[in-house]
Amino acid sequence: MLAAISANCSRSAGATVTVVVAILRVREQHIAVFGGSGSGKTVLVSSFYGAAQEQAFLKESLFHVIADDTGQGNRLRQNYLGMKKNATVPGITRFAATPYSFTIKLKDQDDAKVAKARPFDALRLVWHDYPGEWFEEEPTSEEEGKRRAETFRSLIRSDVALVLVDGQRLLDYAGEEEKYLKSLLWGLRDGLLRLKDDLLNEGKPLADFPRIWIMALSKADLHPNLDVHRFHDLVVEKAAGEVASLHEVLKGLVQIPEALSMGEDFILLSSAKFEPGKIEVTERVGIDLILPVASLLPLERLVQWAERFEIPRKWLDRLANNADVFAAVLIGSKAFSTFLNKVPKVGPLLAKVAPSALTAAVKLGTSKIKDMNAEARANRDHLTATLTQFRLDLDQGVKDDLLVKSLK
């Protein structure tokens, strides 16, 4: 989007110069990450950002990953370089609730024709790091309790939440993994119950809240024989009751509780391969799925929910942020407009998202997505190429036994 700004220029009296300033149209996606001290939260975000600054990534990728806070970005990059060059891991942080904001800026910003045709120019990923210790220990003061609630409110815009299962702790409890898993899930459940009264507005369930809660095995490199299906089985075998109990607590916090997934999605994550005296930062697992999971998985899930039960139209975009524009990109703006023209006239805001259009976007076959991706790359339409690549990455993650997606 371009904005024309007129200003007086001192080079000639009364002269008016029109300055064209590019305004980047940004869509935000939020992801919340829960994990205890030492579970790998800081290492994960450092690996995510640091690898995106490598020359190989910058050369091949369709986009740049830019830290909105330069100082924060430098610290994450420093963490990454410490692992890469000196085999040093970032220090363990406790009680640190840190949001990280990254702008995913497309490389074709100078192509005015392409830019005009697309519904937005950049994607911002806001990564909320919530301390697991706050779910394990009681607040030490009323002020701390308020700070916990305020911090949690900042992440309720997230569509997706990751619950990190510490791969090292699983090793420590080998043969009796239920002790660790139950403690992890009990802590999360009880912490949410303590926050409940502070989160609900006059006792009313929340409209905006993470709807997809993914069980994520961090430090997956410590478990080379554990694919995502075996991890799924382990959680169900050892802690099915606790998963169900947490699900019930989450349902009590939200409006339309049917539109909620907990214990149905699983992912393997590893920031690098860690060996004595050596850290191979290029041998990552699942990190490249974070952007696709944050952006497109909510769109897929929204369609699944819409097919299972009736969702009032006014809720569609509340249940999956940016569903309308992502669908428009995936099926093409002309096709999307055709779908919208068939929607009853219930107002421009409510008609933004047509269930039929969302379904069409999600159910495009892999071969069609590959064709769209190739065509978009050839046309230098980097937004369509990026989102179709995200869709292909999700499919590949499932094939590679790194990701289990709910079938509900």
| Structural category | alpha/beta
Rg is 22 Å
Helix % is 40-55%
Count up the helices.
Answer: 17
Mean pLDDT: 84
CATH fold-level name of the domain at 26-292? Rossmann fold
Q: What is the architecture of the domain at 26-292 at the second tier of CATH? A: 3-Layer(aba) Sandwich
| Tally of DSSP β-strands | 12
Strand order of the main beta sheet, please? 4-5-6-3-7-8-9-12
Low-confidence stretches: 1-14, 16-21, 333-353
Indicate the proportion of strand residues: 15-25%
Q: How would you name the oligomeric state of the polypeptide chains in this document? A: single chain
CATH class of the domain at 26-292: Alpha Beta
Order of helices and strands: EEEHHEHEHEHHEHHEHEEEHHHHHHHHE
N-C termini distance: 38 Å
Shape: globular
Can you summarize the main beta sheet?
8 strands, mixed
Q: What does this 3D model show about the protein?
A:
The protein has 408 residues and is of the alpha/beta class. It has a domain at 26-292: Rossmann fold (3-Layer(aba) Sandwich), CATH 3.40.50. It is 47% helix and 19% strand. It is built from 17 helices and twelve strands. The strands form three sheets. An eight-stranded mixed beta sheet has the order 4-5-6-3-7-8-9-12, with helices on both faces. A hairpin with a 7-residue loop joins strand 1 (2-8) and strand 2. Helix 1 crosses helix 3, helix 13 packs across helix 14 and helix 13 crosses helix 15. The longest helix is centred in the middle third of the chain and has 24 residues, at 228-251. It is globular. It starts with a strand and ends with a strand. Mean pLDDT is 84; it is low at 1-14, 16-21 and 333-353.
